[in-house]
Every structure is written in C-alpha cells, then in structure tokens.
Amino acid sequence: MNIDKVVLVYPRRDGRIFGKAQGSPYTLMRLASLVPDELPVEIWDEDLAPIPFHRITGHTLMGITSKTLSIDRAREIADEARRRGATVVVGGTHATLAPEEVASWAHITAVGEAYFTWPRIIEDVLHDRAQTLYVDESWAELHGVARLTDRVLKMVNEKRDYWTPYMEITRGCPRNCNFCTAIRVSGRVMRHRPVDEVVEEIERRGIRRFFLTDDNFGLNFRTAPDYIEQLFRALRRLPLNGWTNQAEMMVGDFPDLIRLAREAHMDKFFIGFESVNAGNRRDLGGKSKGNLQDYKRVIRTIQKYGIGVVGLFVFGLDADTPDVFQNTWNFCKESGLDNVSFTIMTPYPGTTARQEYIRDGRLMLDMPWSKYDTSHVVFEPVSMTADQLREGYDWICRKAYSLPSIATRGLYTLRRHPLRLAPSKLFSTFSTDFGYRKTYSYRSV
Ligand code: B12
Ligand code: SF4
Asked: Which ligand 2 atom sits nearest the alpha carbon of residue 287?
C-alpha cells in the first residue's frame, strides 16, 4: 500500500484544562520518531483538538494508543478511520493485556513495547504483507531506542500546549504487586537509559519540568545506586525547575541519594504506600508493609532534604474493612504528606488480582471498560460491601480534595521552603491536588 501519511492518535480523556492538555503525548512522540523520514507523520492528540477525520484517506496508516479506560473511544476512532479506508494499528497497554479483544476490531494489533515491531509493521504495510498480530518478543535495551527526532519535536509544542512533559529514564519493575500490570507492560528487569542520552533529550526538548514515566524509579536507589548517582550529578548541572517520579518507600533508606536528588532539582516523590492496613501486605509485592511509623519516618527523611512526598493509596484490597478510610485519613493528616492520591483497587486485564476475582466469582462482569478509571468499583470486595467501598472512597476524596484541605497542605508545603521557592512550590502542590480533584470529579455515583 502507498502510505500518504502515518498518524498516531491519543484518544480523548481529559481534554484541555485551563487551555492546555495535561501531559505531552510522549508515547506517540517516541513512536513517531521511529517512522522513516521519507513518510509524513502526524500526532493527533484528541485531548488537544478533535480528530480531523476528513483528512483520512485509503492511504493513511493510523496507529492508536490504548489504555483500558479509553479503549471504547479508541474503538470508535478505529471504526470511523476504517470506514474511510485507513489501515488501523492498535498498540499500548490494553492491546498488550487483551490482544484478542482488540484484534476483533483493529486491522493490526501490536503487543508490547513495539520498539522492534512498529518499524516492521510500517515496512510490512508498505509492502502489502502485514499480519494481524505483532508481538514484541524481547525487551529492547533502552540505549538509543526511539530517540526523539527533530521533526517530532517541531510538531509538538510542549511548552504551549501541555502542562507536564513526560520523560522516560528507566523502565520495568520486578515487584509484581497483584494489581499492577508493570511486569507485562514493561518487564520484570529494570532497564536504564544512558545518562548522556537523558541529558541530551532534556536539552533538545528544552524542558524545565517533567514527570517520569518510569514504573518504579525509586527502586533503582537500591538496585542501581551508581547509575542513580551518575544521573543526579548530570541533572544537577541542568537549569531545571523541578521533576517528579514514582517510587517505593525504601528510597527513605538512602539519605545521601535523596540529598543528591534535591541538588538534581527533584521536586517530588510519588510514593506508593498503597495501604495503612498491614493485613494487605501479601498483595503489595513486599514493598509496603502497613507499618505507619516507618511510613512517617520515610516522609520526614525525604522532606528534610527539601523534596515533597505525594502519598498514593489504594482501597478495596482483601483485608480492607470499612474503617480503612478513617484510618487512612488520620494517617494523611498526621504524616504531613504534601499531596495524597486515592484509588479504588482496579483489576486490569493481565493482573493476578483479576484472575483471582474471576475464579472467586467476584468480578462485576457487566462493567464497561470506561469504569476502569480507578475511581469506580468493578468487583465485590471481601471485607466490606461494594457500596461501603464506594461510599468510603467518596468520603475520603471529599475530605482530601476539599478546598480547605488543599489549602492546608499547600501552606504546610510552603512553610518548609525558602520564600524564593514559593511560586514554584505553590504551582507544584496545587497542580497535583487540583489534578486529583478533577480525576475524582469524573466519578458519577
Ligand atoms: C506515566 C503514566 C501515567 C501518567 C501519564 C499518562 C498518559 N497520559 O500517558 C499519569 C500519571 C498522568 C497517569 C495517569 C493514569 N494512569 Co498511568 N501510567 C503511566 C506509566 C507509569 C507509564 C506510561 C508511559 O508513558 N510509558 C512510556 C511510553 C514511552 O511507553 P508506553 O506508553 O507504554 O508506550 C509504549 C508501548 O506501550 C507501545 N505502544 C503504545 N501505544 C502504541 C500504539 C501503537 C500503534 C503501537 C504500535 C505501539 C504502542 O509502544 C510505546 C513505546 O514503547 C504506566 C505504566 C507503564 N509502565 O506502562 C501507567 C499506566 C499506563 N497507567 C495506568 C492507569 C490505571 C492510570 C490512571 C487511570 C490512574 C489514575 N487513577 O489516575 C490514569 C489515567 C490517565 C489517562 N489520562 O489515561 C495503568 C493502565 C492500565 C490499563 N490496563 O489501562 C498503567 C499500565 C499502570 C498500571 N496500573 O498498571 N499514568
Ligand atoms: S512496585 Fe509499583 S510498579 Fe512495581 S509492581 Fe508494584 S505497583 Fe507496579
């Protein structure tokens, strides 16, 4: 087939918030960079603008990225594009976790990271020999893979159009928490991008803030301390305003690296404490044990070095009784967290949790994928009813994301920093809290 253009699509989720979309389409930027120079390529981010369906022809190769919660929208876009003659490839998390379902409506399904298969798919479509399923058989080394091209950087105006640029430094997580898909989506072995490539990308993109897409960046403090030290020493030299990442609590055991992290302009750790309930430790892959004194020690250690802590908690694990909400809220207030994020346990395809719920007849089979947004109940919990989980979750979200609570946390954050940092700290704390407030507001009870 002659390809007149390759278009990469991000299905709508949040739309614009105060004029900009939430985060840059990093996934699509990496994939667009793998498209050969001689083929025109475009990124259509539906959070930024409606899909220009009229521009699709019988020579358009469309790649759609998929997450479970937006898969229905992905399908609508695919159907319309197919009607107009395009060849449609669907890849990403949902395609990786539920390929048979996606294959029933996409021309081509791409399972895995696609660093090897996406270039092959393009080649095969060009030569009319495309298959219906491509599976990345091995995890690519992150050295030099999908380096962002200048044409892609010209195409996406990260400063004007997006609140948060994303950035990948490491990928993978060996933990295998029972509700997480990281092992299947990113692999069990932690992989690292070379430090000079990270620096080069930041400089070429001209970004001053970013959010790491890494599954568990903090684990590297223990498993790859030399790499982390080298990285921080390099980032220290860059004119960054702040960057954030997802980590587990054992980063608190490495004060020297935390100090270096601050010098490297790290602003916040998003830490998956997950539960204040020690009974849930089996589900958490060994990373959090429900020891609240330990959680507080970690928060204090990190904050002492000038880095903020966002506490992530999930509700509805098997040992959770209705008092988990009050206990979590008490902990949030006492612990001095800078921000908090609450989610309802969500059994995504490919997780151990989902298999267990299906086995025990606890999965609500009539729930559409759009409810898999972590603020809806899609299964029957063990130690409370689904209604109690829903009501408890609403209760704690109303408490945590009320304007007085947001203001209290903002003031607490401000008090710990010199006045000259006030504008950036205020932006950082309020943008996180208002982001979560918005996520929660999706919930229609
Ligand atoms: C960064 C991140 C975020 C960021 C940015 C999200 C965004 N807008 O992209 C933030 C923090 C905002 C976020 C929010 C959420 N996230 Co999130 N997030 C991630 C994370 C850690 C990394 C994703 C990433 O960007 N990786 C880097 C890029 C380069 O890789 P990639 O996206 O995986 O894409 C590669 C392949 O998948 C493939 N590919 C992808 N698309 C396509 C398309 C084609 C055509 C092809 C060929 C290949 C292909 O090629 C790419 C290059 O290798 C993943 C975990 C993970 N490791 O994937 C969870 C993850 C995607 N998130 C998840 C969830 C649940 C959420 C939330 C619902 C959580 C919440 N309660 O708020 C929200 C939903 C927000 C939304 N708008 O969709 C789940 C999704 C599960 C699922 N089955 O869908 C994941 C998998 C984590 C988990 N719990 O297991 N998230
Ligand atoms: S530690 Fe985090 S990234 Fe790793 S498996 Fe558990 S939830 Fe997923």
From this structure: 1
